[in-house]
Design goal:
The complex is a heterodimer of chains A (184) and B (443).
Chain A: H1 2-18, H2 31-34, H3 75-84, H4 93-106, H5 108-111, H6 120-123, H7 142-151, H8 165-183
Helix pairs in contact in A: 3-7, 4-8, 7-8
Chain B: H1 2-21, H2 23-42, H3 48-59, H4 77-85, H5 89-97, H6 99-104, H7 108-116, H8 130-140, H9 146-200, H10 213-219, H11 221-245, H12 262-268, H13 273-276, H14 291-298, H15 314-328, E1 330-331, E2 336-337, H16 360-366, H17 371-375, H18 392-401, H19 413-423, H20 431-435, H21 438-441
Antiparallel strand pairs in B: 1-2
Helix pairs in contact in B: 1-2, 1-9, 3-8, 14-15
Classes of the chains: A mainly alpha (184), B mainly alpha (443).
Chain lengths: 184, 443
C-alpha cells in the first residue's frame, strides 16, 4: 500500500510538470474546435483601425430598449434636470430590496450604507469629501440624482454603463429614501 | 483624524530631538518646524484640527491642499488671494457660501476662476459658520511638513530591516561552516578508528562476494513478471493522466499588462465583484471593465497608500496607476482627459472552449451563486489565476450537488412541483432539472 501511494505521488508530481509554464495557456487537442471562428467580444481584429472587435453602436442609433436622455451634461442641464425631471417608477417592496442591493454594490463603497458619505473607501481614507445626501447646499432631488448617475459630476464618474435606465431610477428612489431617512 | 495629526506632530517632535544630535543634517528641518509654529500663530483665529475634519468632509471631494483636482489647490489660499488679487476673507466667505451668486454679481475674479475650471460650479455651503470657515482656512494655512516626517520615518525604519537581512545571512553562513566542520570531524574519526583497529590487530572482515543482487533479480522470472506488470500499469496510468490534463488550464497565471491586484481592490477595500464586472448580472459574459470604471475611483486615488512588500512597493503600485492614466489618456497634472488612448491588452484567463456554452447571468442572477464558487478566493489573489479546472466533469459535478434556487422565482413554481413529485424528492438538483442534458451546453 505504501509503495502504491509513493508511486501515485510520483505520478502526480510528474503530471504537474507536464504543463510547466503557468504563464502560457496549456496545449489543446483540436484548437480549431476550441477557438471561436466568429469574433469574440474582446478579441483583436485587424479589420478595424483601432484593432478592436468591440464596436460602439453606429452614430445616431440607439440600442433596443434604450431611450434618449434629453438633458445636457452642463450646469444648466443639471439645474434643469433638478427642477423638471421626475421619477417615472414607483417601486414596490421587492423592487426596493433590489434597489438596495444595487445601491450597496455601486454607490455604497463611497456614499455608505446610510447615504451619509461614510462608505468603506471614505473610512479607509482612500476617497474623501463624499457629501451626505441630506447636504443642504446641494438639496438633491430625484431629477438631479438621476442626472448625476447618468453623467457623473466633479470627481464622481458616470454609472450609465453599469446600470440600465430602470436600474438608475431604482437607485434614485433608494437614494431619495435614504435622504428622507437622514433628514428625519 | 485628530489623533493621527497629533501622532504626526509627535513624530516630528521626536525627529526634532534627533536633530539635536545631528544638528548639521537636521538643521533645515528645525527651521521648517520653526516656520510652521510661527504661521500657526498668525492664523490663530482658527483651529486647524477641527478645520481638517471639516475640510475632509466638505471640501476634499474637489480640492486637495497641494494638487489641482476638480477645483484648485488650497494651500495658503487666503494669503495667496490677499497678495495676488487683494481679496480678503470676506470675499472667501461669500464665495464658499454661495459662489454662483458671486459669479452672477459680476465679480471679476469669481468669473475668472469659474471659467478657468471649466465652469464647474462649486456647491454652496450656507450651513458653514464663520468659525467653521476660519477653522478650514487655518488648516489650509498650515505649512506642508508631511513629506519630511515621512522621509525621516522611512529612513529610520529602513535600518532595522537591513539588519535583519544581514543577520539571516550570517546565521546561514555559520550553519554552513558548522556542517562542514562536522563532516570533516566525522571523516577524521572514521580514519582514526580504522588506524586504531589496525594497530590493535583487529581484522576487519571483508564481505564475501556473492551473486550481485541485480543479477539474482534478473534471473527470478516471477519478480520480473511482477515488475513488467507494475511498469505497464504505472505507465498506462501516467499516460491517462497526461491525456486528461491536455486543454485544462487550472492554475493559469499570465502576466497582465497592468498589475491589477484583486487583493487590494476586492479584499482590502471590499469593492463588490459586480461593481467592475457589472455585466455578469445581466449578460452571458462577465465583462472586463472598461477603463472609465477604473477612473471612477482613480480620478481621485492617484497613489497607493496601503500595505507594501519588497516586491510590491509603493513606487511599483504608483507606476501601475500611471500606466492606467496613460492608457485612458488622463493628464494627472492638468486633471483632464487628453483624448489619446491606448487600449489595454488584458490576457484572458478563464476561457471555455467554443463548443461549450456558459452564461454568467444565469448563474449569478438566477441561481445566486457566489463568484468565489467557481473563481476561488479572488479577494486574496495578488495575481489573478484560474482556480477551477473548468472541465465538463467539474461542471456536472456541481450540477449534481446543487439544488435549484427557486426562492422568489415564479418561473420554477410549476416545473419544480411536478418534477419533484416525479423524482420523489423535496428539492431538485440542477441535474434533475435538466442540467445534464447535452444540448443545454453543447449546440
Amino acid at each position: 500500500m505504501k509503495f502504491n501511494i509513493k508511486i501515485l505521488f510520483l505520478i502526480a508530481v510528474l503530471m504537474q510538470s507536464c504543463w510547466g509554464d503557468r504563464g502560457a495557456p496549456n496545449y489543446e487537442y483540436m484548437p480549431n474546435m476550441y477557438e471561436s471562428l466568429s469574433y469574440e467580444s474582446y478579441s483583436e481584429n485587424n479589420l478595424f483601425e483601432d484593432n478592436l472587435s468591440a464596436r460602439l453602436p453606429v452614430e445616431g442609433t440607439i440600442p433596443r430598449g434604450y431611450s434618449l436622455y434629453d438633458y445636457e451634461d452642463t450646469n444648466e442641464g443639471y439645474e434643469s434636470a433638478k427642477k423638471n425631471l421626475t421619477n417615472p417608477y414607483i417601486l414596490n417592496q421587492e423592487e426596493m430590496l433590489k434597489a438596495k442591493e444595487l445601491y450597496t454594490v455601486y454607490c455604497g463603497v463611497c456614499h455608505g450604507s446610510k447615504g451619509a458619505g461614510q462608505g468603506i473607501l471614505v473610512k479607509r481614507e482612500k476617497i474623501l469629501g463624499i457629501p451626505s445626501y441630506a447636504d443642504p447646499g446641494r438639496a438633491i432631488t430625484s431629477g438631479s440624482t438621476y442626472h448625476v448617475i447618468y453623467y457623473g459630476k466633479n470627481t464622481m464618474g458616470s454609472y450609465a454603463n453599469q446600470l440600465n435606465e430602470k436600474e438608475r431610477w431604482m437607485v434614485t428612489s433608494y437614494v431619495m429614501k435614504l435622504k428622507s431617512d437622514l433628514s428625519k | 483624524m485628530d489623533q493621527k495629526e497629533l501622532r504626526r506632530q509627535f513624530s516630528l517632535f521626536k525627529s526634532s530631538r534627533l536633530s539635536n544630535l545631528k544638528t548639521k543634517i537636521f538643521g533645515p528641518l528645525l527651521l521648517a518646524l520653526f516656520f510652521t509654529s510661527t504661521i500657526t500663530i498668525f492664523a490663530q483665529d482658527g483651529d486647524p484640527f477641527a478645520g481638517k475634519a471639516l475640510f475632509n468632509t466638505n471640501c476634499a471631494s474637489c480640492h486637495k491642499l497641494d494638487r489641482k483636482m476638480t477645483g484648485p489647490a488650497l494651500r495658503n489660499v487666503e494669503t495667496r488671494l490677499l497678495e495676488d488679487e487683494g481679496l480678503d476673507r470676506e470675499w472667501l466667505y461669500a464665495w464658499i457660501r454661495n459662489s454662483s451668486a458671486l459669479i452672477k454679481s459680476g465679480d471679476a475674479y469669481a468669473n475668472k476662476i469659474y471659467e478657468e475650471y471649466n465652469k464647474s460650479a462649486m456647491t454652496a455651503y450656507p450651513q458653514l459658520t464663520d468659525s467653521d470657515l476660519n477653522n478650514i482656512l487655518a488648516y489650509t494655512a498650515q505649512e506642508k511638513v508631511v513629506p519630511v516626517a515621512v522621509a525621516a520615518a522611512t529612513q529610520v525604519s529602513n535600518v532595522p530591516s537591513n539588519d535583519l537581512g544581514l543577520s539571516d545571512q550570517i546565521i546561514l553562513g555559520v550553519f554552513a561552516i558548522l556542517f562542514l566542520l562536522l563532516s570533516i570531524g566525522l571523516v577524521l574519526v572514521a580514519k582514526t578508528l580504522k588506524n586504531l583497529a589496525e594497530l590493535k590487530g583487529v581484522k576487519i572482515e571483508e564481505k564475501k562476494k556473492g551473486k550481485p543482487i541485480w543479477k539474482a533479480y534478473l534471473e527470478n522470472q516471477f519478480l520480473m513478471l511482477c515488475t513488467a506488470v507494475i511498469f505497464l500499469l504505472v505507465s498506462a496510468y501516467g499516460f491517462y493522466g497526461w491525456t486528461m490534463q491536455v486543454g485544462v488550464n487550472q492554475g493559469y497565471m499570465p502576466v497582465q499588462p497592468i498589475h491589477y491586484s484583486h487583493k487590494i481592490h476586492s479584499g482590502d477595500n471590499k469593492i463588490d465583484c459586480n461593481y467592475c464586472h457589472s455585466s455578469a448580472r445581466v449578460s452571458k459574459h462577465s465583462g472586463i471593465p472598461s477603463l472609465n470604471i477604473c477612473m471612477n475611483c482613480h480620478k481621485s486615488i492617484y497613489e497607493y497608500n496601503g500595505e507594501t512588500t519588497e516586491e510590491y512597493s509603493k513606487e511599483f503600485y504608483d507606476g501601475e496607476i500611471k500606466k492606467l492614466y496613460k492608457a485612458v489618456g488622463w493628464d494627472d497634472e492638468a486633471q483632464e482627459y487628453t483624448g489619446v488612448t491606448y487600449p489595454v491588452k488584458w490576457v484572458r484567463i478563464h476561457n471555455l472552449p467554443d463548443f461549450a456554452y456558459f452564461n454568467h447571468s444565469q448563474h449569478v442572477s438566477v441561481a445566486g451563486i457566489d463568484c468565489q464558487t467557481c473563481h476561488g478566493p479572488v479577494e486574496e489573489m495578488e495575481i489573478m489565476y484560474q482556480h477551477s479546472p473548468l472541465t465538463m466533469g467539474w461542471c456536472i459535478n456541481c450540477h449534481r450537488e446543487t439544488n435549484v434556487n427557486i426562492k422568489d422565482n415564479e418561473y420554477y413554481d410549476r416545473i419544480h412541483k411536478e418534477l419533484s413529485k416525479k423524482y420523489g424528492v423535496e428539492e431538485l438538483t440542477a441535474a434533475q432539472m435538466g442540467g445534464l442534458e447535452c444540448g443545454k451546453c453543447h449546440y
